[in-house]
Structure to design on (86 residues):
């Protein structure tokens, strides 16, 4: 299961995951998406990642980038304070 979760954010999005909601829920989703400066679809995508993996999609991407930069496990503030250098 861990390998399965690790690969969830890699690849093109081709499959639909949909549901029906009430008009009030639809309006609230649109409002939350506007506040987050994203589309309702992107907000739902992030929410699915959070529920399934415990982290948002953005956190997965940030972790991948930290790994490439050799900053794994370091808090973001540490990397910012040192300009990403040791």
């Amino acid at each position: 299961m861990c390998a399965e979760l690790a690969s969830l954010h890699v690849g093109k999005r081709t499959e639909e995951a949909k549901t029906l909601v009430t008009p009030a829920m639809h309006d609230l989703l649109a409002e939350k998406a506007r506040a987050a400066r994203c589309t309702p679809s992107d907000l739902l995508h992030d929410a699915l990642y959070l529920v399934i993996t415990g982290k948002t999609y953005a956190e997965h991407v940030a972790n991948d980038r930290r790994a490439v930069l050799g900053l794994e496990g370091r808090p973001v503030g540490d990397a910012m304070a040192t300009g990403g250098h040791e």
